[in-house]
Design brief:
InterPro entries: FkbO_Hyg5-like_N, RutC-like_sf. The protein has about 325 residues and is an alpha+beta fold. The chain has a single domain, classed as 60s Ribosomal Protein L30, Chain: A (2-Layer Sandwich). About 20% of the residues lie in helices and about 35% in strands. The strands form four sheets. Strands 4-18-17-20-14-13-12 form a seven-stranded mixed β-sheet, covered by helices on one side. The chain has a seven-stranded mixed β-sheet with strand order 6-7-8-11-9-10-19, covered by helices on one side. A four-stranded mixed β-sheet has the order 1-5-2-3, with no helix packed on it. β13 and β14 form a beta hairpin. The longest helix is centred in the last third of the chain and has 19 residues. The two termini are about 25 Å apart. Bound molecules: 3-(2-carboxyethyl)benzoic acid (3EB). The site of 3-(2-carboxyethyl)benzoic acid has 12 residues, from β10 and β14.
Length: about 325
């Protein structure tokens, strides 16, 4: 059997395998070998000093698995103040948790988190950010341009350093119901560029018109990870063009979200649909809608692992958002 390092010596240009993302029973002991990151969801999830472990402030709706990112190769991990990281097999996980009260609100906290992450990634061999997740509380509180999500967007771009100048990564930004003022941001980066994928049914988020705030959201609809065998899919909702569709109608928003996902997969050149290797996450605004969301997912993608969490979507009229991965 060849080891990972022997394979890289034989073909130095071959990309390392992308991490596999799986939902598992919470591990009884130590994290399995090759674990780059592990996520527990909600207040009942374990806490750990392992820098690779993050307790996400989103409550699970139904089953509460642990999400594991696994790479081919040895993993080393560490922490530095509010930042934690792990690297292995050419891939880097980095996370920042902070409280808005220490940074004068959501804008300052976002700028701080992105500055820390940008500086860390810029100094790393794995300096190409592929995918990023953002969780903040009370995301829809505040009117007009003062809505907290919009303040977050302004801080996010202010804190984005040079590593984001090549183009934005795929992302999700979700409202949690956990500790007041907690901001959680974590990312996946690697040692070579991926390719951004946009959705032909949707205006690119960074080109949203002024009505959505002073600072358009800085994310791509998806990233094709090197070497083009995995599509990392941003939070996808019932947005058509730049407008929210089907206000107040969950079934219609789900159907529209499904069409957006289909269009993104096609544009990314990956196979249609979601299968057993394509874990999905659904962010559900009203816990009472979980059964309807699950029924939709079961009907459309019967074999795809689904994790549902209670989360607010960044536009108040949107009831559900879905993200995930599509492995070729
Ligand atoms: C949308 O399509 C829905 O601000 O990072 C989806 C994914 C959304 C990411 C972000 C926002 C973000 O505009 C909202």
């Amino acid at each position: 059997m060849r080891t990972g390092s022997e394979m890289r010596e034989r073909s130095p240009l071959a990309a390392p395998n992308a991490p596999t993302v799986t939902y598992r029973e919470p591990p009884a002991g130590a994290l399995p070998p090759g674990t780059l990151a592990a996520f527990g969801f909600g207040s009942a999830a374990a806490v750990s000093n392992d820098p690779r472990w993050l307790r996400v402030a989103l409550e699970p709706l139904g089953e509460a698995p642990v999400e594991l990112w696994t790479v081919d190769g040895d993993v080393v991990a560490g922490s530095d103040g509010d930042l934690r990281w792990a690297r292995g097999g050419g891939w880097l996980y980095a996370a920042v948790e902070c409280f808005e009260a220490d940074h004068a609100g959501p804008e300052g906290a976002a700028a701080y988190a992105y500055r820390l992450l940008s500086a860390f990634v810029a100094a790393a061999p794995e300096c190409h950010v592929q995918r990023i997740w953002n969780y903040l509380g009370d995301i829809n509180v505040g009117a007009g341009d003062d809505e907290r999500y919009k303040q977050f967007c302004t801080g996010r771009i202010a804190g984005m350093g040079e590593v984001f100048a090549k183009g934005f990564p795929a992302a999700s930004a979700i409202g949690h119901h956990g500790a007041k003022g907690l901001l959680q941001v974590y990312l996946l980066a690697t040692d070579r560029p991926g390719s951004r994928v946009e959705n032909p049914r949707q205006v690119s988020a960074w080109q949203y018109p002024r009505q959505y705030g002073r600072t358009p959201p800085s994310f791509a609809r998806g990233t094709l990870l090197p070497a083009d065998d995995v599509l990392a899919i941003s939070g996808t909702a019932a947005v058509v063009g730049h407008a929210s569709a089907h206000t107040g109608d969950l079934a219609a928003q789900l159907a529209e979200t499904g069409r957006n996902l289909d269009a993104l997969l096609a544009n990314g050149g990956v196979p249609a649909g979601f299968d057993a290797r394509a874990p999905l996450k659904a962010y559900v605004r009203h816990a009472g809608d979980a059964a309807t969301v699950k029924a939709f997912a079961d009907a459309h993608w019967p074999t795809a692992p689904l994790l549902m969490v209670h989360g607010d979507i960044c536009r108040e009229e949107l009831l559900v958002e879905i993200d995930g991965w599509r492995y070729r």
